Amino acid sequence: MFDETDLILEARHVTRRFPAAGGRELVACNDVNLKFYKGKTLGLVGESGCGKSTFMRFLVWLDTPTEGEILYKGKDITRMKGKELWENRRHIQMVFQDPSTSFNPKMRIRDIVCEPLLNYRRINPSEKDAAARRLLEMVELPGEFADRFPHNMSGGQRQRVAIARALALEPEIIIMDEATSALDVSVQKTIVELITRLQREKSITIGFICHNLGFIQSFAHQVAVMYLGNIVEILPGESVSEKAMHPYTEALIGSVFDTKMDFSKKVVPIRGEPPSPLDVPAGCPFQDRCSRCREICRRERPTLRTVAPDHEVACHLFEKGGSAI
Amino acid sequence: MALLEINHVDISYGKTLTVSDCSLTLNEGEICSIVGESGSGKTTVIRAVMGLLPGGGRVSAGDILFEGESLLAYDQKKWRSLRGHEISMIFQDSGAMMNQTRKIGNTFVEYIRTHENISKQEAWKKGTEMLERMRLPDGDRIMHSYPFQLSGGMRQRVGIAMGMTYQPKLLLADEPTSALDVTTQAQIVRQMMELRDEYGTSIILVTHDLGVAAYMGDKIVVMKNGKIEDQGDRDHMLHETENPYTQLLLDAVPSLGGKRYV
Amino acid sequence: MKKKNFFLRYPGFTIFAILAAAIVLVAIFAPQITHGVSPIKGNLAEAIMEPSAEHPFGTDKMGRDVFTRVIYGARASLSSTFLLVMVIFVLGTFLGIISGYFGGAVDAVIMRLADMMMAFPGLVLAIAVAGILGASMRNAVIAISLVSWPKYARLARSLVMKIRHTDFVAAAIVTGSKTPYMLWKYMLPNTITTLVITAATDIGGMMMELAALSFLGFGATPPTPEWGFMLNEGRSFMQSAPWMMIYPGLAIFITVVVFNMLGDNLRDILDPRNED
C-alpha cells in the first residue's frame, strides 16, 4: 500500500528524556520509528501519558528529541536552526486539540487565518479580506465569519478555522493533535469528512493523534499504537478490527464500545494501571498488564518486527515472523 | 410502582427555561442512559433529581417522584436522609470533588459520619471494607493516600465506592467515564454493571458516548436542546426508531469494521 | 454622545480625572495663579509671618510666600513623580516580558537582579545613591527607580508566563511568527492593562517616596520649592509656625489621594475581569 518513493517524513530512533526530581528520568518517547507517506494519514493512538503528543511536537519544532533524527525529505529537521528552521516551518503545520485555547482571544478570525500569510509575506495587509474568505471557503465556513471573534463561534466552527489556519501556507504535512476530541460526536463526523476531502484534493499528509482506536481506524491509512513511549504496533487502518496482534492493541479494541457490538459480551478490561513513565520497567513496557507475559518479556524489550506487509509488531509472542509462538 | 418517575418536568434558571417537558420512568434494577450533545440539558436533569441544581435553578413545572414520594417537597432534613442512603451521585471527576489536602480516608470517614453516628475508628474500618468490596486493590493504602497520589481511574472507583457505601437504590452517574482513558473506562463500565448485578442498584447514566450508553443501558433517552427527542428500550433505539436525530447520532458513532473514509 | 455616556457611566473616574487635571493645570499655570510672585525670592523682613490677606499661607523662614511655593511645588512634585513612574513602568515591563518569554538564563539573571534590588529598603538605598551621586531630584528618581522596577518586572513576567505555553502562542510560532512580533503583538498586549493600572495606582505612593527623600534632604535642594523639602524646612518651626508644614503637607495629602482614587477607578474600568 505504501510506496517508498512517497516517503515524506521519517522518524528514526527518536527518544525524549526529561530529568525529574530525585535524579530520576522521565522517558516520554523511547526509540520511536515512524514513517509518513505523501497524501496519507498516520493515526497515532495511545492513552494519556503515552508520549504521542510529545512526539508530534517534535515535528513542528515545539520540542527537540534527546536522541534520534527526524528526516523531512532526507534532511534532519531536529538540528535545524534560525532561517533554515523558519523556512521549513511552512511545510509542516499543526491543528491543536482545544478549539477554545488555540486562538488569541483578542484577534478576529480574519487576522488569525491571515497571520501565517503575513508572516511569510505571501500577501499584503490590503489583501487580507480576500485571502480570509478564500481560506474560510475551503473549510466550508461563510466569508462573514472573518469579522467574528473566536468566542462567538461553536467548537466545530472553531476547529474548522484552525484547519483553515493550518492550510494557509499550503503545507505538505499537517499534524492534528486530538483535533476532534473536544467536539460533539455529530460534529466530529463532519470534521473527519472535511479532513479527508481536503486530503484527497491537496494530497496532504496527516499525522493524527487520538486516544480512541475505534474513531481513528475509520480514516487513517496507517495506525501506530503507542504505550508508555514505545510504538508497539503499526498496521494498516483497515486491518485494525481483524488483524491486530499486540496484546495492548487487543485490549484497546476490547475497550471500544460501539452501537453495533455484541451487548451480551462481557467487558474484559486489562488489569492494573499503567506504570509511571518515571519507572519504566526493563523489558517490555506492557509486562505487568499483559495476560500472556513470559519470562523473556521481563528481560528484553521487544523491537518492531515486520509480520505482514505494512504490519509491524513489537512483541516477543510474534518473534518468528508472523505466527504466535 | 416505579422507582423513579420524572413527570413533565420543566427546569428554569431565573426566567430562562433550560429543560422542558422531561418525562422518564425508571424501575428497580434498570439502567437508563441519557445521551445528548453539549447543551442538551442532560446534566441539568440528573442534578434536579438529586436536588442539586446550582444557583437559581429550580423545577418550575412537573414533579419528580422517588418511590412514589415527591422529591420537590423535600426540605434539607429529608434530603440529608435521602442522599447517600437512597440516592447517590458520582461525577465526571470524583477526584475534584474531594478535598485535595486531606487523605482519602479522612474524607471517607467524614462522609460516613454524616450518615451514621459511629466513631472515627469504626468509620475508617467501614471505609476500608467498602473499598475492598469494590475490588480496589490494597484498600488500606488508598485510605492513607491523598487524591493526587491516585490515578484518575482509581479516583473514580473511590468515588463509586463512597457512593455505594449505603447501597443506595438509585445511583446517578454524571459522565463518569468522560475524563478517563479507554481502558480505564472499560474497568469503570464493568464495575457499574456489577453494581446492578450484585446489589440491584438502578442507575441513570448521563453520557455523550453512545457506545457506552448502548452497552450499559436497558433504556436509552436522547436529549437535544433541553427536550427529550426520543426514548425507548435499547433494541428499539438502535434498530427500530425512525427519529432523524437519533439516527444522526447513531450514524456518527464510528465502529470497528464499519464505514471507512479512506 | 458616546463620550458623554462614558463619563456618566463611571462617575468616580470622571470626578477624580477632573481633580487630577485641575492639579496638573495648577502646576502649569503657577505663574498666573500666584500673580507673578516669585517662589524663590524672599524678603527676610517678612520672615515667619502668619497667614494674612497678602500671604494666604503665611511666609517661611526666608520670607518667601508659602502659598506661592506650594503652588510652584506642584511642578517639581508632579514632573518628577511622572518621570519616575514612567521610568519604572518602561524598564520593569521590558525586563519582565523578556524574562518571562525567554526563560532560562535570561530569566535567572533578571530575577536575581530583581531579588537583589528588592532586598534593599528603598529609602536606605536612595540615601546611599544620594551620598554617592549627590542630592538632587534627578538622583532621587534614579535611586527610587532602582528599587521599584522589580515589582513591575515580576508582574509582567507572571502575566507573560501565564500565556507563554498556551496553544495559541504555540500556534503563532508554528505559523512562522518571529520573536519581536511575538513580544510586541502577543506578550505586551497581555500585560499592558494590568501594568497601566499598577502605574496609575502607584503615582500616589511614588510621590510620597520622593517627598520623603526630599524631607530627609536627599532629594530636592534649596531653593527649589518642593513639598517634601518644604516639610523639612518647616520641621524646626512645627510649634511656632505650623503653617510652614501644614500647607505643603495638605498639598501632598490631597494630591496623593486624588491620584490614588484615580488609579482605583481606572482599574475598575480597565480590569480585564470586567471585560466579560
Short description:
The complex is a heterotrimer of chains A (325), B (262) and C (276). Chain B has 262 residues and is of the alpha/beta class. Chain B has helices at residues 42-50, 76-82, 94-97, 104-115, 120-133, 139-143, 152-164, 182-199, 210-216, 234-240, 244-252, and strands at residues 4-13, 16-26, 31-36, 57-66, 69-70, 87-90, 170-174, 202-207, 219-224, 227-233.
Q: What share of the residues of chain C lie within helices?
A: over 70%
CATH architecture of the domain at 18-36 and 63-162 and 191-261 in chain C: Orthogonal Bundle
What is the number of strand segments of chain B?
10
Radius of gyration of chain C: 22 Å
Describe this structure in words.
The complex is a heterotrimer of chains A (325), B (262) and C (276). Chain A is an alpha/beta fold and 325 residues long. Helices cover 28% and strands 23% of the residues of chain A. Chain A is built from ten helices and twelve strands. In chain A, the strands form two sheets. Chain A has an eight-stranded mixed β-sheet with strand order 6-7-8-3-9-10-12-11, sandwiched between helices. In chain A, 48% of the residues are buried. Chain B has a six-stranded mixed β-sheet with strand order 6-7-8-3-9-10, with helices on both faces. In chain B, β9 and β10 form a beta hairpin. The longest helix of chain B has 18 residues, at 182-199. The mean pLDDT of chain B is 90. In chain B, α4 (104-115) crosses α5. Chain C is mostly helical and 276 residues long. In chain C, 74% of the residues lie in helices and 0% in strands. Chain C has helices at residues 2-9, 11-28, 30-33, 66-102, 104-119, 122-133, 137-164, 167-174, 179-216, 227-234, 243-270. Chain C starts with a helix and ends in a 6-residue tail after the last helix. Classes of the chains: A alpha/beta (325), B alpha/beta (262), C mainly alpha (276). Chain A binds chain B through residues 41, 47-48, 155, 184-189, 192-193, 196, 211-215, 217-221, 237-238, 240-242, 251-261, 263, 266-270, 273, and chain B through 37-38, 151, 153-154, 181-187, 189-190, 193, 208-212, 214-215, 234, 238, 248-262.
